[in-house]
From TrEMBL:
Domain Periplasmic copper-binding protein NosD beta helix residue range list: 166-336
Name used for this protein in its record: Right-handed parallel beta-helix repeat-containing protein
UniProt keywords, alphabetically: Repeat
A matching Pfam family: NosD
SMART domains from the UniProt entry: PbH1
PROSITE patterns: PROKAR_LIPOPROTEIN (PS51257)
PANTHER family: F-BOX ONLY PROTEIN, F-BOX ONLY PROTEIN 10
Organism: Streptomyces yunnanensis
Amino acid sequence: MPRSGLRMVAAVLGTLTLVVGCGGVEGGSGGGRRPSGAQVTIRVPADAPTISTAVSLARPGDLVLVAPGVYHESVKIGTARITLRGASRDKVVIDGRLQQPNGVVVAAPGVAVQNLTVQNNTQNGVLVTGSAKAAGGLPGRSGGYDTGDEPVTFLKSFLVSHVTATRNGLYGIYAFSAQNGVIEHSYASGGADSGIYVGQCKPCHIVVRDNVAELNAVGYEGTNASGDMYVVGNRLVGNRVGLTTDSDHQEKLLPQRGAVIAGNLIAANQQKATPEQADGGWGTGVGIDGGSDNQFIRNRIADNSNAGLVITATADMPPVGNQIVDNAFTGNGVDVGWTFPTATRGRDNCLRGNALRTTVPAGLATAASCPLLAKSPSPGGRWAMPTAPGGIPFTEVAAPGPQPQFPHASTAGATAVPAVPVLPDTAGIPLPSASLLAAHARVGTS
């Protein structure tokens, strides 16, 4: 490091707030020394001029606290167990100006990203990954990351909370080749591919909960995301497609299997003022494409003009053993539709306890009632699917309004991210109230 850099480090360390031992706070003293075991709060811009500078100075256990302002930078976090937090979720904005691929890249374990906005990046708002190629900003051919011969390396343990991700060219919040994490209390809009995406993990041990995704091509997408993968209590309303879980050769760890999708509100996913979905999807609440052994429990799936839930197959991967249990379907073009390519059909997919008006083929609730005999073929059919209208550039998606703040953002200490998150008990996840549907009018239903 050049001497000018050393002088900057010494100057910054000399002014930091030190958190020592069990949380006692004492003012920073000159000389740049840090007591053994101390944790510090590095304030931007008071202690460091940019977020990236503050992150580079942080050590495990430190908090980087960012004051309101617009920051034109791409922040890469390579130090374990640090917390990056905005003092105001709506007023701390990391803006890529369409000149950088990612707003925040988390490439170290135990990191928390909280209470800020990331926008106008050509790829992702927040990327959490153990893949060096993904962290380097090498996108795949149609969204996602084709990492070639790179071995699968997982980033283990992360937290993304109270983050607003809007107007990003691929994904708002993206966990790829990562495990043992939580994405919660966040908002994603204007994702040209998906608002929230989890890809290439097995077992995932990931929880996506209590988020809002609207005005995206797809609200939530899980590709090759298998094993202890929970998507619970989210609001996926006013996208082109609400939620998909699928298998895709572009990523490793095929096939996708073993996700739990429970207690979500998935409604009115035919919003025109959104980026076009790459495969032309439109008006669909839930799509299962070559995914297997997934459980869809107590979701409210309503007012999706094409279909509430669709099960289909990729060219060579059948959907097997998906269970659709105790969901409420209302106002969809077709409530549940199963349709398969000629060469690849599903099997052992079943339904139980759902409120259904129409299915394709007819009579699925009886013919495919859970439990089924092993290796039971899944019947398929066809229906008239609406043509997707043209979309708008992701840069033109409506700006979000104010979102809920992280409690005590400026006074709470750093967040300790658990090595493995506590996984939800699905028995305690309720069906969302029908009264929640009234609020979807704010994003439109046409």
